[in-house]
Every structure is written in structure tokens, then in C-alpha cells.
Design brief:
The complex is a heterotrimer of chains A (346), B (630) and C (303).
Chain A (H helix, E strand, L loop, with lengths): L13 E10 L7 E11 L4 E5 L6 H9 L6 E6 L2 E2 L5 H7 L3 E4 L13 H12 L4 H14 L16 H13 L5 E5 L7 H18 L2 E6 L2 H7 L2 E6 L2 E7 H6 L4 H9 L5 H13 L25 H5 L5 E2 L4 E3 L4 H16 L4
Parallel strand pairs in A: 3-8, 3-9, 6-7, 7-8
Antiparallel strand pairs in A: 1-2, 1-4, 4-5, 9-10, 10-12, 11-12
Helix pairs in contact in A: 3-4, 3-5, 5-6
Chain B lengths: L2 H8 L2 H23 L33 H37 L1 H16 L2 H11 L4 H28 L2 H8 L4 H37 L11 H10 L9 H25 L36 E10 L5 E11 L4 E5 L6 H9 L7 E9 L2 E2 L5 H7 L4 E4 L3 H4 L6 H13 L3 H14 L5 H5 L8 H13 L5 E5 L7 H18 L2 E6 L2 H7 L2 E6 L2 E7 H6 L4 H8 L39 H5 L5 E4 L2 E3 L4 H7 L1
Parallel strand pairs in B: 3-8, 3-9, 6-7, 7-8
Antiparallel strand pairs in B: 1-2, 1-4, 4-5, 9-10, 10-12, 11-12
Chain C lengths: L1 H18 L4 H6 L5 H11 L5 H13 L13 H36 L3 H15 L2 H15 L15 H35 L2 H8 L4 H38 L5 H10 L3 H29 L1 H4 L2
Classes of the chains: A alpha/beta (346), B alpha/beta (630), C mainly alpha (303).
């Protein structure tokens, strides 16, 4: 996918600097969900946020939306600092910043009609007559592929895929500039997922909206995103152009992630599996308690410096950045195996 | 209050009856003292007619002072109802407002309010009321007001937890993000949802106040004589219990019926406010099935049938009492020892039902109505519950979908595994414990002793799934049925679990039936694939054939929709329409409305399973067209 | 929490009682006493001190174990309470045990064997909730004591005197108190068991081939036990209220009737003493419930 970030003029839409979020309860040591996150999103751009459970990807989305409080760092949206935005500012912000959640079954109020749910968002920001509201609701329903009579029905009448389309409709009613998509297709079947992904892409073209696309599924993320950010335990370990990261992952964790995900091709999968098992690596378990790289315990290439010094994101060749002390050596040996991933770029 | 709730409430005849009764009581309370003005001051009636039982002249008899019981009962309604109303109103006002505040604002406000509520709730109500009566003797109003305060924590707790539950629900979060104000959210989203809960609490408080008023009257602490009240009349009756036992019945029944009406109304309100929630059916003991007739054509005769470990043939599973709906129909496939077979499909295709039906683990009214499930020469579909119990765990074992939830939360995992061991090997407790540790080691868990002492919620997803696999192996089965075993796990953990299953498969010649929706998992672990759509098997072949050359348009379309094969510059190919639900399956081929190769013969009659290639079955009569365009 | 509760409740009752117009001194002297005698008696009883000082004095002596003496009868409050405590305890513990055992049993049976038992339980549940315990007691007296003359209508026989007499005197009152609680506990047990039996881990237990008795009685009951315990705890608080009235109906010399009498005669020390003991009883029951809950529910323990 061509990267419109290359030709974006003007300012960034979302600009996050050095973000840290901690969760804590009385008397318990605080849990660091995110540490020192830097992230940018431009106009009409999709940035995919990838990681496993506990990586902090949902936390990041929630911090941008103001649902989770921030410990340090800044979040700028369209030039404005929204890190500690209060309720009134959040309300104004909601015209430009919206969300689509993962669970299509609980993100819609079961006792309100679709029409009510869709129009109440719009009514907050624009003084429209009832007829105008109705017209806009019907227009949006048509755009997401639902019949106009859906407006009078309740969420219970619709399937998971249809509800997710309604959730997308709700988010886009106000034609925002950025939509946080928190695992929007994870709960959907494969064929339904394809429909929803297509819808997101089409709407991006029509409405020039940007997405922060949070997901654990690398294949999906690679398909929808211009750029990918890989999170591990609250830190960015690798980021950059989506195709580059998917085809030539440089960070050991990204490689682990890609190697572990099975591909729907028995012959290739067998080869990949054998390559994966040939590499030593510890199972996902321990919590690091030292100052160095977060991935040390699981990393087959870890050395002393990894235990003591935390790596920072550095430019690699190509359009990616990686936080690893040994990425060059790893890339040299990994080049042979990288051929497997390149096949998928057809 | 949302109109929907009222409508649902009034649709129940019980609720209407209760409301009518309660309205009548209120009417009597208002009207009776007006119509019968002398009763309240009547000190004695006709002293010649004391303690008479019911008669035409006195429908409910007379009391010890010759007064007509029915008249006193009617007039006494007002005093009693007034007392109940006082207590109820006070408790609702306090309870609802504090509950809303605590639930919505949270933080220290919530802590303080909750603490106060707990304190008040723990106070022995009768003691406090007695103290109040000591200070304000005979003052019913003061007592009832204090009673209302004492009962308010119950209301507050319910309102608070309802608000908390709703405030955290995604759609409220979404509403907040959408920019709606807090007041709007409370009035439009929260209050309508808790209206039902408030009614339930109000009814309970009213019932409690009624009992309280009577109790205090029985204790002779509230004597408003000669004016009657229900409680006072019960007190009179208790005093006369030896001479005239009848006297306690009229006022007692009045109290009982009113409380019953309140109780039934609150039950109805609770049912009406929850969203058509039906309790998930629990597994009922199976009656012995009559030997099912073989299905139409779907016979899993692939591979050498005589060697097959499990053969499913023409199985149809239905739900409901007649008229029944088919959940799966004419399902057939075979599994051989040491073979991993995948049942693949999207949600609603019936893959889980198929897997569960093999073990007879179908809930409620779901049952196999035809076909055979032959395991080791025995038709499981025709077996009774006792026979099936012998098979479960010891020949065929289940690895459920969500590992942590599938383990009992209040027992240590070691105990749970040991229980299964003891069941199947009939050994001593110590031997079972040893074997449990062996099994935990077998599934590659580090430090099995420590894990065995843990509770499920203390384990990670991966560890819990390994434990569940250990439990499945406890009976030394020959076939493992794994129902989406890695769906809830991270991808790196999934890889490890699949590695473990593969290792078990090769080292123990274990057959595995894997239910999944993930084609990557199918490609990684399985040798054969059974593809299901809308309750039917539509393709069945070895895995490489299915991927390389699918012979059914649905399989082909599904594989094409996978983002792994996607090209960045194009949209994903999708299948128009959506999956039909059981009961709405099209006639003929279930897929034809969505299929680009559909022709007239696809719509007409049920499509049989055919075998155009060796070892490759399909339920499509136009697969040649599909191959031509591929 | 428990200690705070006792303090708060005793303080409230102390203040309220002390504020009442008319006090013990007046009650003792009667209308004949002169004003001089009244003042003297007041000083003697310590009633002329400021309120907080009175409360503090009472608290100090109470902590030392001395609950004072009854203003009306002169007997020590402590001795009055201890002589009547066994009666109330017999009633409370007896009713709790009977209700818990029968209620849980009924609930489990009804959850396992559905059908007719279900409907019966629903009906009993509703009735049990609606019938006040004291009224049920009166009916029981009418039937079993007055009509059939099988059991005594009133009175209490201490266990030291005669075990069978003790049991006889307890049957009707305990039955009256238990009827309502059995209904509530049975219904709650059944509802909770049904929910538990539909859970994923029970389904997995069936799949592993365990016997039905193991599943129902070991896994099912333990999971349901927690909720049932909590409900029983809530019921216990209401039980104390019912006990007071039942003691009045059956003329049993327990703490309840002591309290009622003392309230009517403004016998402050006695009221204080009984209030404290009652509250302590509630605290003790709640503590027991909490401990049992923690023993059953491992998730609470790791906190």
C-alpha cells in the first residue's frame, strides 16, 4: 500500500511523546502498562498497533480517548495538547476523535434503537432537525451496507458482523479525523471480517479518516495498515512501513510473533514450523525485573548488554526503526529465513 | 422508565393481578374510614356477640369485644398502609440518591457511602426501633421513618451495583467518548435500565415494613387502640389465641396476601427488566436413544473404514420440542488412530454441536435424532447415559475452549486432575496424586508440584490449557476432542500448545478431532479437514487437497477471504449475503443463495455428498465449474 | 468494622435514651417524690453529669466487663443477660442450623431432580417469604399446643433441667423461625446450583467422565456454597428481629423479652447491655460467615 505519510503536508493528526501509563491499587506495586511511547499518525493514514495480551495496545487507545489517565508524557491531537483534557474538552474532541470497540455485542445499548444510537452522537455536535438527522442516519446505514429500516430496530436483531458495521457507522457519523479501532474484527468470522475490513478501507477513501488499528492478528494488521508499530510489554520494539516489517522483521520479538502465527498453507507451514523449532527460546513466562531490554528472558540472541542497557529505537536500513542491540547480526543470519515471508507479498 | 419495560411487565398476567390487588388495597385504605366512620373509635361492639366465628351477619366473625372483624380489617388498612408507605418512601429516596451518587462518581464518595451503608445494614433493626419507641413512645410515624432509613442500604446497594455495571458497559463508554454529557447518560442510558431493580427493591422494602409494623404491634409497643390496624389485630388475636384461635387468621391472611402480591410483582419486575436472558440449559441426563437410522448419503467412508477409530455417519441433531429445528444434518466423517482431523467452519455452522454430540454432551432439548457415531464398534448415538459415562474421559476426552473457565475455580488444579485419575483407574488417593504430577510433567509444565497446588485463576492462559490437556489425558483416552483450544490464547502460546498436541499425537498414536475456525491451525496440525457450512459437511479431504484444490465454492471463497493471501492494492474478496441460521436454511444446497456457480438444480433438492476424487468428498454438483475458473 | 458497629450502636442508643423526657430517677421515685429527693437521686445515679461523660463512664466499666446494674430491679445487668442468653442462643443457633441443613438439602435435590419439586419449591419460597415468623408461631401454637396438645405453648426448659423438656420447648418456636428461612435458603441454593451446573467447568467435568455424585456434591455444592453462605448471613441479621417477637409470643425468658421490658420501663443500663450483646452476636455471626466464605473461595484468600 502506498504510504500517504510520505506526501502529507501540514501537521500531524496525532502526536504522542514519551507516554507512560501505570495502573496501581492501594498498597500494591504499580504495573507499568506503557513506557515512553512515541507515536505519530498523519491524515488518511492507518497505523497498526500489534502485540499480544499485556502489551498495552488497548491501553494506548484508551489513553488517547481519555478513558485511562496518563502518568507522564503528552498527547497532541491536531496541534492541541489533550493529555489531561477535561470532560468539556473531550466532548468537543469527540467530533474529531471516535472509537470502534472489539465486542459487537456490548458496545451498543440494547434498549435503544439503531437510529437513536446513531443520531444521538451527531445531535451533540450539529443542530439538525429531526428530518435531517434521519436522512443522515439512512445515508450512513446505506454506506455500511445496511437497509434503512434497520434504524427502527434494536441491536438484538442483528448478527455480530452487522453490529460491528453499526458501531463503525456510529463512529463515522460525525465524520471524525481519527478513529481508534480496538480489535474491531477479532470477534468476527473470516468472511465477515473481510467485509468489515473492506468497509474500513472504503470509508477511509471516502471520508479521509485515519485509523489507529489495534490488533493481535499480524496478517490483518498488515493488510489494513500503512505503518505498523509492534508493542511488547508496554514498549515499542519495532515500527515502520507495514510491508517492510511483515516481510523483513528485524526485532527478535517481531520475528517470534511472525514465526508463531501459522499460515494457511500446509507445505509452507511445515517448513516454517521446523525453522521455528530449530531456534531455541524460552516459553512466554517471566517478568523482567532489570533495567535492560524487556525481551531478554525470551530472546535467543540475548547477551550481557541486553540485561543492563535498554535499547532505543534506531533507524534500520529500509523504512523501519528497531529497538535492539543486535539487530544487525540477527538480520544477517535471518536473511535466509526471510525468504519465507517474502513469498506472502504476492 | 422505558416504555419497553412497562410493556413487558404488563404482559405478564401475574403482574397485572398483583397490581390490581395492590391498587384495591390502596383504594380500601382511602375509602374505608370514610364509609365506616365509627369503627376507628369503637371501643366495644355488641358484648353479647363476642368471639363469634364467621357468619352471614359478621362475615369474618367478631373479636373479644364484640366488634365486627371485617369492618376493622378494612378500616385498619389505612393505618397500616400509611406506615408502609412512610418506610418505603424514605428508604427509596435515600437509597436511590445515594446509590446513584456512589455508583456514578466513585472514588472516595463511593467508599464513604458504601461504608455507611454497611454499617446501617448491620444494625439490628428491632433493637434500634425499640430504642426509638423508648424515646418516642407509641409514635408509629417516627418508627417507620427510622425503619426506612435502616432499610435504605439494601436499595442503595442494588442501585449502586446496577449503576456500576452499566457505567462500565462498553456502550456507555462509547457514549461518553461520543461526547454525551453525564446527566444525559444517567437519564437516558442508566435510569431506564435500573427502573426494574428499583421496583424490586421497593416491593421488598414495603414487605419488610409491613412485617415490621405487625411485629411492633404484637409486642404491644404500638397501641393505637381502639383504632384498628392489621398488626394490632394480629396482636389481639395472639392474646386470644387460646380462647379464639380464628382471630389471627383474617389480619394474618391480609398481611400474607399483600406480601405475596409485592413479592410476585417484584419477581415479575425482575424478569421484565433483564434482557430476554435465558439461563443456559444445563446438561440433562440422556435417555437411551433408539438406534438411529442411517442418514441419506453422507457416509464417511473415506480411508479404510475397518481401521477407523471413530466413524460419524448421517448424524442429525435437533433442538426443541416438536416441531424441532435441525442444528446439524447428515454429518459424516471418520477418524483413524493417530490422525488429526479438523472440523473447520464459521460460527453457526454446527462444528461445536458435532463435537459435543459425539460425547453426548448436549444440553436441554438438543439430541441426536438419526445417524450413528461408531467408536470401537459401539454406536454412541444409541447409548444411554451410563454407557457414555464409561467412555467419557477414558476413551474419548475433551479439551474445552477457554482453559481457565473450564477448570473449577474453588479447587486446586492438582485435585481436579487427581479426581479424574481416581475415577478411571480406581486407585488410592496417593497414587492418583502421583499420577497427576506425572501428567503435569507430561504436558511440559515447569515445577509440577507448585502448579498442582495452584488455583485456576492463578495460572496464565497457556499454563491453564496445558493443565486442561493433562486432565484430558488422565483417563488414557485414544481420541482427544479439542474445541477451539487455542482461540483464547496469544499466538506464541498457541504455537506451543499446538506443538504439545502434535507431540502427544505422534508419541501416543493419539487421534485428535480439532474444532477450529482458523485455517492456519488446520494447516499446522491436521492431516484431514472436514469443512462445515450451515449444519452440513460440505467438503471432506486431506488437508493439502483442501488448500490446493478446494472442490466447494464456499471453501474456495473462505480461503480467498483470508488476509494472508490478500493483495494490498485490492479489496478482499467477500462472500455476499450472510450465514443462514438453523431453521432458515434454504431448500436444496444451503449455500446456493450466496454462490456464483448456483444453478437451478442446486435449489431443487437436497444435495448429496459425492466423491469426485479419491479420498475427497464434496457436496457441490458444480465443482467442475469451480475448478475451471480457479 | 465490628467494633465500630458496637460503639456506634451503643452510642446512638445511649444518646437517644438519655434524651428522653422522663428518666429513671423519675420512674423510681414516682409522682410522690419531692424535688429535693429527685435531685439527690439523680446525682446518686450519675444522671446529672454531661452526656458524653455518662457515656464514657459506661463504656469504661463495660470494657472492664461490668455492664452496670438495673435501675429498676437492682440486679446486675450482666447477670440478667447471662441468665437469659442461653434461651436466645438456643433459638438463634437452633433456627440457623435447622434452616441451613434442610434448606440446602431441599435446594440441592430440587436442582438435580427438576420437575415437580421445582414448582413446589417456588411456591414454598413465596409463602415462606410472605408469612411472618411470629404469625406462623401463633398458628403453630393454635394447632399443636391448643388443639392437639402435643407440645407446650409457652415457656422454656433449660437443658440442665431436662434435655427432652428443652427440646420440646424449642420445637415450635424454632419451627416458626425456620419456616421462612428454609424457604429462602432452599430457593437460593437451587438457583445458585442451577447456575453453577450450567457453567463451563461443570460441563468439562461431565466430559471427563466423573460420576454424577462427585459433580453435584463435590464440585457443584462447593461452588454454590459461597452464595448460600452469604444469603444465610443476611438472613441471620433478620433472624434476631424475629427472635425478639417469637420470644414474646411463646413467653420465653430470653434477651428479647428482657429488652422489650426494659424499653418500656426506661431501664437504661439494661437496654444498653442488651443492645451491646445483640450487636456483638451479629458481629460474631458475620465474622463466622466471612471466615467460612474465605475458606471456600480461594480467590478471596490471595488478596
Amino acid at each position: 500500500m502506498r504510504n500517504p505519510a510520505d506526501d502529507r503536508g501540514g501537521g500531524l493528526l496525532l502526536h504522542i511523546r514519551d507516554l507512560t501509563v501505570e495502573y496501581g491499587q492501594r498498597g500494591r506495586p504499580a504495573f507499568r502498562a506503557l513506557t515512553g511511547i512515541n507515536l505519530d499518525i498523519g491524515t488518511q493514514e492507518t497505523v497498526g498497533l500489534v502485540g499480544e495480551s499485556g502489551a498495552g495496545k488497548s491501553t494506548l487507545g484508551r489513553a488517547v480517548l481519555g478513558i485511562t489517565p496518563v502518568n507522564s508524557g503528552t498527547i497532541h491531537f491536531a496541534g492541541r495538547d489533550i493529555t489531561d483534557a477535561r470532560a468539556r474538552e473531550r466532548r468537543q474532541l469527540s467530533r474529531e476523535l471516535q472509537v470502534v470497540f472489539q465486542d459487537p455485542y456490548s458496545s451498543l445499548n440494547p434498549t435503544r434503537t439503531i437510529g437513536q444510537t446513531l443520531s444521538e452522537t451527531l445531535a451533540v455536535h450539529e443542530p439538525l432537525s429531526r428530518r435531517e438527522l434521519e436522512a443522515r442516519v439512512h445515508k450512513m446505514l446505506a454506506r455500511v451496507g445496511l437497509p434503512p429500516d434497520a434504524a427502527a430496530r434494536f441491536p438484538g436483531d442483528f448478527s455480530g458482523g452487522q453490529r460491528q458495521r453499526i458501531a463503525i457507522a456510529r463512529a463515522l457519523m460525525v465524520e471524525p479525523q481519527l478513529v481508534i479501532c480496538d480489535e474491531p474484527v477479532s470477534a468476527l468470522d473470516l468472511s465477515v471480517q473481510a467485509q468489515v475490513l473492506n468497509l474500513l478501507r472504503e470509508l477511509q477513501q471516502d471520508l479521509h479518516v485515519s485509523y489507529l488499528f489495534v490488533s493481535h492478528d499480524l496478517a490483518v494488521v498488515k493488510y489494513v495498515s500503512h505503518r505498523i508499530v509492534v508493542l511488547y510489554r508496554g514498549r515499542i520494539v519495532e515500527e515502520g512501513d507495514a510491508a517492510a516489517i511483515y516481510g523483513h522483521p528485524l526485532h527478535p520479538y517481531t520475528q517470534t510473533l511472525l514465526n508463531a502465527a501459522p499460515v494457511p498453507d500446509p507445505v509452507r507451514q511445515k517448513k516454517r514450523r521446523e525453522a521455528r523449532l530449530a531456534q531455541p527460546g524460552d516459553p512466554a513466562n517471566s517478568t523482567p525485573s532489570h533495567a535492560g531490554c524487556v525481551f531478554t528472558e525470551r530472546c535467543p540472541h540475548a547477551s550481557n548488554i541486553c540485561r543492563t542497557e535498554e535499547p532505543h529505537l534506531q533507524e534500520s536500513r529500509g523504512r523501519t526503526r528497531v529497538a535492539c542491540h543486535h539487530w544487525r547480526e540477527i538480520a544477517a543470519t535471518h536473511n535466509g529465513r526471510a525468504a519465507d515471508h517474502e513469498d506472502s507479498d504476492t | 422508565m422505558s416504555a419497553g419495560f412497562l410493556r413487558r411487565l404488563l404482559r405478564r398476567p401475574v403482574a397485572i393481578a398483583c397490581l390490581v390487588y395492590l391498587v384495591l388495597v390502596v383504594l380500601v385504605a382511602i375509602i374505608a374510614p370514610i364509609v365506616l366512620p365509627n369503627v376507628a373509635t369503637q371501643n366495644a361492639g355488641n358484648l353479647l356477640e363476642v368471639r363469634l366465628g364467621p357468619s352471614l351477619h359478621h362475615l369474618l366473625g367478631t373479636d373479644d369485644l364484640g366488634r365486627d372483624v371485617l369492618q376493622r380489617l378494612l378500616v385498619g388498612t389505612r393505618v397500616t398502609m400509611l406506615a408502609v408507605a412512610e418506610a418505603t418512601v424514605v428508604s427509596l429516596v435515600i437509597g436511590v440518591s445515594f446509590g446513584l451518587v456512589a455508583g456514578f462518581f466513585g472514588g472516595w464518595i463511593d467508599s464513604v457511602v458504601t461504608w455507611l451503608g454497611d454499617l446501617t445494614f448491620s444494625m439490628p433493626w428491632i433493637v434500634v426501633l425499640l430504642v426509638v419507641l423508648a424515646v418516642f413512645p407509641q409514635d408509629l410515624t417516627a418508627t417507620m421513618v427510622v425503619f426506612g432509613v435502616l432499610l435504605s442500604p439494601g436499595v442503595m446497594r442494588v442501585v449502586r451495583s446496577a449503576v456500576l455495571a452499566i457505567a462500565n458497559e462498553l456502550y456507555v463508554v462509547a457514549a461518553r467518548v461520543s461526547g454525551l454529557t453525564r446527566t444525559y447518560i444517567i437519564t437516558r442510558h442508566v435510569l431506564p435500565r435500573i427502573a426494574g431493580a428499583i421496583i424490586v427493591q421497593a416491593a421488598l422494602v414495603a414487605a419488610g415494613a409491613l412485617i415490621g409494623e405487625s411485629a411492633l404491634a404484637v409486642l404491644n409497643l404500638i397501641v393505637v387502640a381502639p383504632a384498628p390496624s392489621w398488626g394490632g389485630m394480629i396482636a389481639d388475636g395472639v392474646n386470644q389465641i387460646v380462647l379464639d384461635p380464628w382471630l389471627i387468621w383474617p389480619p394474618g391472611l391480609a398481611v400474607i396476601f399483600t406480601i405475596l402480591a409485592l413479592g410476585l410483582l417484584s419477581n415479575a419486575a425482575r424478569d421484565a427488566s433483564s434482557e430476554r436472558w435465558s439461563r443456559p440449559a444445563h446438561i440433562v441426563k440422556r435417555r437411551t436413544r433408539r438406534g438411529g437410522s442411517a442418514g441419506q448419503n453422507g457416509i464417511g467412508r473415506l480411508g479404510s473404514e475397518s481401521e477407523a477409530l471413530l466413524t460419524v455417519e448421517g448424524v442429525t441433531v435437533t433442538v426443541g420440542t416438536p416441531p424441532t429445528t435441525n442444528l446439524i444434518e447428515d454429518v459424516g466423517f471418520a477418524i483413524h488412530p493417530g490422525e488429526a482431523v479438523a472440523i473447520v467452519g464459521e460460527s453457526g455452522c454446527g462444528k461445536s454441536v458435532t463435537a459435543m454430540s459425539i460425547l453426548g454432551l448436549l444440553p436441554g432439548t438438543v439430541e441426536i435424532t438419526s445417524g450413528h457415531v461408531v467408536f470401537d464398534g459401539l454406536d454412541l448415538a444409541a447409548c444411554g447415559e451410563n454407557q457414555l459415562r464409561q467412555i467419557r474421559g477414558s476413551d474419548i476426552a475433551l479439551i474445552p475452549q477457554e482453559p481457565i473457565v473450564s477448570l473449577d475455580p474453588v479447587f486446586r488444579v492438582g485435585t481436579q486432575i487427581a479426581d479424574v485419575v481416581r475415577r478411571h483407574e480406581h486407585c488410592s488417593r496417593r497414587a492418583a496424586k502421583r499420577r497427576a504430577l506425572e501428567l503435569l510433567e507430561r504436558v511440559r509444565l515447569p515445577d509440577p508440584k507448585r502448579i498442582a497446588r495452584r488455583y485456576p485463576h492463578e495460572l496464565s492462559g497457556g499454563m491453564a490449557q496445558r493443565t486442561a490437556i493433562a486432565r484430558a489425558l488422565a483417563g488414557s483416552p485414544r481420541l482427544l476432542i479439542a474445541d477451539e483450544p487455542t482461540t483464547a490464547l496469544d499466538v506464541t502460546v498457541q504455537a506451543e500448545i499446538l506443538d504439545l498436541l502434535r507431540e502427544i499425537q505422534t508419541s501416543q498414536q493419539m487421534a485428535i478431532l480439532l474444532v477450529t475456525h482458523d485455517w492456519g491451525v488446520v494447516a499446522d496440525l491436521c492431516q484431514r479437514a472436514v469443512v462445515m457450512y450451515a449444519g452440513q459437511v460440505i467438503e471432506h479431504a486431506d488437508v493439502s487437497s483442501v488448500f490446493r484444490e478446494p472442490l466447494h465454492p464456499y471453501t474456495a471463497a473462505l480461503l480467498a477471504a483470508d488476509p494472508h493471501h490478500a493483495s494490498e492494492d485490492e479489496l478482499l474478496p467477500t462472500i455476499p449475503g450472510s450465514v443462514p441460521i438453523p431453521g432458515r436454511w434454504p431448500a436444496g444446497c444451503h449455500f446456493h443463495p450466496r454462490c456464483q456457480y448456483a444453478a437451478a438444480d442446486c435449489r431443487k433438492a437436497a444435495v448429496p455428498v459425492i466423491s469426485p476424487r479419491n479420498d475427497h468428498e464434496t457436496r457441490c454438483i458444480h465443482h467442475e465449474d469451480l475448478l475451471a475458473t480457479a | 468494622m465490628g467494633v465500630v458497629l458496637i460503639l456506634v450502636v451503643s452510642a446512638i442508643s445511649f444518646v437517644l435514651l438519655a434524651l428522653t423526657p422522663g428518666n429513671a430517677a423519675q420512674a423510681l421515685l414516682g409522682p410522690q417524690g419531692t424535688h429535693q429527693e429527685y435531685l439527690a437521686l439523680r446525682r446518686q445515679l450519675g444522671l446529672n453529669l454531661p452526656l458524653y461523660e455518662q457515656y464514657w463512664n459506661w463504656l469504661r466499666t463495660a470494657m472492664a466487663g461490668n455492664l452496670g446494674t438495673s435501675v429498676i430491679s437492682g440486679a446486675s445487668v450482666g447477670s440478667q443477660i447471662s441468665s437469659r442468653l442461653p434461651v436466645t442462643l438456643s433459638l438463634v443457633i437452633g433456627s440457623l442450623l435447622v434452616s441451613a441443613i434442610i434448606g440446602t438439602g431441599l435446594g440441592v435435590i430440587s436442582s438435580v431432580r427438576r420437575g415437580v419439586v421445582d414448582r413446589v419449591l417456588d411456591a414454598i419460597g413465596l409463602v415462606g417469604f410472605a408469612v411472618p415468623s411470629f404469625w406462623a408461631g401463633a398458628v403453630l401454637i393454635a394447632i399443636f399446643a391448643v388443639d392437639l396438645k402435643w407440645l407446650p405453648a409457652t415457656g422454656y426448659t433449660p437443658i440442665s433441667q431436662s434435655v427432652s423438656g428443652w427440646l420440646e420447648s424449642l420445637v415450635l418456636p424454632v419451627l416458626a423461625l425456620s419456616l421462612g428461612m428454609i424457604a429462602v435458603i432452599a430457593k437460593q441454593t437451587r438457583d445458585t446450583m442451577l447456575d453453577v451446573l450450567a457453567s463451563e467447568h461443570i460441563k468439562a467435568a461431565w466430559a471427563s467422565g466423573l460420576s454424577p455424585s462427585t459433580i453435584y456434591l463435590k464440585y457443584g455444592l462447593k461452588n454454590a456454597g459461597m452464595t448460600v453462605m452469604t444469603i444465610t448471613g443476611v438472613q441471620a441479621v433478620g433472624l434476631l428481629g424475629g427472635t425478639v417477637v417469637v420470644e414474646a409470643i411463646f413467653a420465653m425468658p430470653g434477651l428479647g423479652s428482657l429488652l422489650v421490658n426494659a424499653t418500656a420501663t426506661h431501664d437504661l443500663p439494661v437496654v444498653q447491655g442488651v443492645v451491646v450483646v445483640f450487636t456483638a452476636l451479629i458481629v460474631a455471626i458475620n465474622l463466622l460467615i466471612d471466615l467460612t466464605y474465605a475458606a471456600l473461595n480461594p480467590r478471596v484468600r490471595t488478596v
